[in-house]
Amino acid sequence: MKKHMTLPSHAKAVAVLGLPLIGGHLAQMAIGVTDTVMLGWYGVEALAAVTLASTYFFVLFIFGSGFAWAVMPMVASYQAENDEVSIRRATRMGLWLSFGFALLALPAMIYAAPILRLMGQQDTVVSDAADYLGVAGWGILPALFVMVLKSYLAALERTQVVLWITVAAAVTNVIVNYALIFGNWGAPELGVVGAAIASLSTQIVSLVGVVIYVKFALPQHDLFRRIWRADWDMLAQVFRLGWPISITSLSEVGLFAASAVMMGWLGTVPLAAHGIAVQLASITFMVHLGLSNAATVRAGNAHGRRDPDHLARGAVVATALSLVFSVVTVAVFVLFPDALIGIFVLEDEPAKVQILQIGVGILFMAGLFQLVDGLQVIALGVLRGVQDTRMPMIYAAVSYWVVGVPCSYILGFTFGLEGIGVWAGLGIGLGVASILLNLRFWRTVLPRVRVLHPA
Known about the structure:
By secondary structure, the protein is mainly α. The chain contains 16 helices and no strands. The longest helix has about 35 residues.
């Protein structure tokens, strides 16, 4: 007879697993913030170029990350079954697929200039962005490998090491940026190319750190032994689970990219206010993402043990924790908008008053938006845990592109609500995704699991 954990025990388990993952996501985000701040000090053109190049890199990276995300629920399930051979096989084929994607993406990185020009960008910005990608683009190889190995470690509930490796990478990024962007400590002043070298160095340090840990802390999996040998059956399994995750992630990233384009149509000041709101919302979203990752691991574990009650209780607890944090976030965003926006705007900024006026309304919408954003990412995490990825992919595409983007345009421009309307459209798209994904789990997937594996 299966022993059932209490809800407080589930909450403790999710927190122990999730807090280091949240810290790791925040540390990863700090790398991007550091680049933005330091290049802002160096010059506006350099900042514009690397903002464009980083977005370009991120879209390709997110698209290729589906195979890494697929490794997490598979390894969690195999761990519950004590199947160490399949743990090794799934992780290796995740590395293989990530390597294949990286090879396909590299030409788009190295020869980015014509693509960036087709996007209507200025020649000077394109030139600097292409210089950056010519170096930093090679980082997609180690970056995707690190994602696979982090997913493997998270699935084994070794989340502390994921946090510390990410922190070490963030520190490396600061040091190399400071030396090579500005020419400090006797290093050459390389500007944008210096930032690219820092980015690549950061990815390599992360990979070396995680490989050393895996090799010496988990010798029983012997992960890198005969890694060149193909395992076509497992490769197909990881591919089938991973490609819908890639499309789902791309749909959401695309939604936010489209919102930035629309805010740009409204002018520089609304776009600046939007950028601040996105930055703040992204910081709080890292908490929901960490909880979602923990939910994936816990659901994968329950799935491997054929325990639907454990699966349901874990989902309830992760959703409740996300909702509690969302309520706190809404309160902070609504009560202290001026103070939050003021962190990003200098006192002598001529447009500060306008940014605050627009930003307060957007931040209110961003607070409400947290409620549905948290719910959809938790549901997505649980569904990935039980290896259900195809219908969530369809739900994401419909919610974000058939509902979200048109609603943003109609509310922002047709109804003249401008920035608030654009953000309301984002919230509607994420709200639809939240409803569909939760119905998918509670009304379809969980009942099916209960029938297959009754308690």
